[in-house]
Design a protein that fits this description.
It is built from 12 helices and no strands. It is mainly α. Helices cover 87% and strands 0% of the residues.
Length: 343
Amino acid sequence: MKRTLLPASGIQFVFQILLACGVTALFIWQFNFFLLIFASVLSAILFHYVASWIEKKIKIKYIWSLTITLLTIALLITGFFLLAGPSVSKQIEEISTSLPKSVDQLMKKMQSHPIGKKLIKQLPDDPGKAVSENKDLLVKAASYLSSFLGILGNILIVLIAAIFLAAAPGTYVKGLVRFFPLPKRTEISGLIHKIYNTLATWLAAKFASMMVVGLATGIGLAILGVPMALILALIAAAFTFIPYIGPYLALVPAVLVGLLESSQMALYITILYFSIQIVESYFITPMIEKKMVELPPVLALFWQVLLGTVAGALGLLLASPILAALIVLIKETHVKKMEAANE
């Protein structure tokens, strides 16, 4: 009796189905793992985009332009901390000395209100003794330390993976394209190229916005005489990476610092942040994001909430670039085919 063997195309099809099922299961159970992969790809796109620009400008080999890119980024970060370190340390010291006075003022205000009096009565007379007796606090502290070390480990993994991806992007793109049938490979390669261009443009626009917001915030806070102006400006710049939600998250620590001075100062800080946000949203961002895929605000907002709920801070951080890539993917693979069929 002869055995009927599957043809090569049939074996490849079965393999693709099994692979798709495996990847889907892994995606559901280990979503954070895929977010780390995407973060590595996004960082690699940044490195490759800058290195390619240097390669074209000064006519050197790509590997050398990538080396220059990585060294420049490392030197900028190191130089910033060396130059800004003393100033940051001084600002933190000023806050630490003014904080107890602000707490005393807050306690006095609370005592003048019935609800405040009830809250004060529930506070322990000796906070140090209460902390030493509360073992849960020590457990939570150990948990926070473990989470912090985990974050550092993830950052290291992302950076190492990004460097390897940026060093030989063609190898990984070709490997990914080979998972698809021969007739589809050209189309898939073009799709990957379009997603790359979209994310590279998004990163360039976003970093430009971050620089403008950081500078404007730092100058505005310095004029107002707000303590820790440098740190708050860095926070505002960093949170600009997260559209729509980020600026309001950055406002919280700034208002708290303003309240240490006075409620009037907190109001001035709020006005400053909203003014910068209006300028950034309606003038700066539209001007530098003309070539970028448009992210519908409502869709982007709910997408951020969804990924933030599912994957925490990492999901919130990567929500917008993931959505930009998905919009390109859906547009190229589904929308254009539907439009062509209707025509």
